[in-house]
Amino acid sequence: MQFVYYYYHYYYYYYYYYYYYYYYYYYFYYYFYYYYYYYFYYYYYYYYYFFYYYYYYCYYYYNNIYYFVYYYYYYYNYYYYYYNNYCYYYISYYYY
Question: Which residues cross the membrane (predicted)?
């Protein structure tokens, strides 16, 4: 299958973070950072001849630096699981 990829929508969200979640994100920073690169196209949802899913990029801010936290998917769902500072999300379509 040949996939054609394009951005449909890009959205920015701001979240307040909780103190205990802040440290939780920090511990998982390196682990998920690698998953962001190696499993970028790992999950998908088929719907007829295309699959459609959401990307969520979450960061936190510390000492004037933005740290990557986690990258995850939700299908047709607007629920945000993590309570960090910044979450970036966009919708993408894949056709074949």
Answer: 20-41, 53-73
